[in-house]
């Protein structure tokens, strides 16, 4: 099927903060939408131009029948940044969004000043890789219902009340075909970069400095060994669930503001 949006999906987005200020692009993950960045956007808008999109197939953005992949999402964001005229952005992404902003930096380096990837969807290895075929089959069969079970188990025990329910609800509202296509785009499609050897190859293509925050000590140690850009760094936030940016809003805001100014 031909791509009905040859120049990228016209993404639903919001923008806060003064025009002309340094720009932050805040990108949600798989089965999410931009609402998860609301407290961060409000806190950062005094110093930055904060742009919060819904990725293709998610939230209030258009839902194409095909092509709901991280590569296409990165190209959509490049078109959005160009349209808004913000200049190069600090591109921040969580989970699948972390993969998307890294792809944005590799494919469209002129649009990106630096990257922040929060528990990104790259570097899969071992048992996680072994389970990918079965998970993809389940997502193709049951779509968002299957994915919601993953989401429900992705939070720390002391995560803020209501956060798990909000994300399960948002995932359940994501079209089934988008859930499956995005997962395949992360891990199994030709050129997918989610599995560790492919992740290493594409991270070496990144020319912009990056801050990566992991909840896994092993993943943090692995990525420290892949860094080839001066000024990049990796942090490990222990005792955090996968949705670390929402479990620790104030810490995330401080980290993003410090990186955007000094990173």
Q: What is the structural class?
A: alpha/beta
The overall pLDDT, averaged over residues, is 95
Large-scale geometry: globular
Largest beta-sheet details: 7 strands, mixed
Kindly state the percentage of residues in helix. 40-55%
Low-confidence stretches: none
Quaternary class: single chain
Strand order of the largest sheet: 1-3-2-4-5-6-7
Succession of helices and strands: EEHEHEHEHHHHHHEHEHH
Instruction: Report the sheet-strand fraction.
Output: 5-15%
Termini separation = 42 Å
* Count, helices: 12
- Report the count of strand segments: 7
* Cα-atom radius of gyration: 17 Å
Characterization of the model:
Helices cover 43% and strands 14% of the residues. It is built from twelve helices and seven strands. A seven-stranded mixed beta sheet has the order 1-3-2-4-5-6-7, sandwiched between helices. α10 links the parallel β6 (210-214) and β7 (233-236). The radius of gyration is 17 Å and the shape is globular. The termini are far apart. The model has no long low-confidence stretch (mean pLDDT 95).
Key attributes of the depicted protein:
263 residues, alpha/beta, 7-stranded mixed sheet, 12 helices, 7 strands, 43% helix, globular
Secondary structure topology:
Blueprint: E1 13-16, E2 23-27, H1 38-44, E3 49-53, H2 70-84, E4 89-94, H3 96-107, E5 112-118, H4 127-130, H5 132-142, H6 144-152, H7 163-172, H8 176-187, H9 196-203, E6 210-214, H10 217-224, E7 233-236, H11 244-247, H12 249-262
Parallel strand pairs: 2-3, 2-4, 4-5, 5-6, 6-7
Antiparallel strand pairs: 1-3
